[in-house]
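Checklist before submission:
- one chain only
- standard amino acids only
- sequence pasted in full

Submission:
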Amino acid sequence: MLVPFQELPEEARIWIYQANRSFTADELIEIEQELTQFLTQWAAHGASLKAGFEIKYKRFIIIGLDQEVTTASGCSIDAQVHFIQSLEKKYQVDLLDKMNVSFKQGEFVAYKPLIDFKKLVKNKSVSANTIVFNNLVNTKVEYVNDWEVPLKDSWHQRFL
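Returned file contents:
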């Protein structure tokens, strides 16, 4: 059951998929339609899942699930991953590679492999105050409060 993302409770489970490039305006329209279709049918053991999504910065796909209604099963999570893989293939984009870092440079969102990001920190091209995206958040309240944080307040701080 698809619901507006804003209506999901704070405890909703969150998955964040970051793209290695920005989506075009046309791609965003198509991806929103595909997400709507997928989440409308998404189920766990035949029970409809109450889920919503949003796309941020033309680059991040955020899927939220209200687990108070029905929890995700292994099969439903597999279905989500297969759906994301289909988006990767269709749009020639990486969404599942967790070994990359996205961070803000002004209003621009940069994307770098982890090894390159470490070099940027070492060379002082990014600072402790650079805003990074913590895609490891698990709940909506964490997403709202701890997704965009200064490098010094994130798991990335170990590179300082």
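Reviewer check: The longest helix spans residues 74-91.
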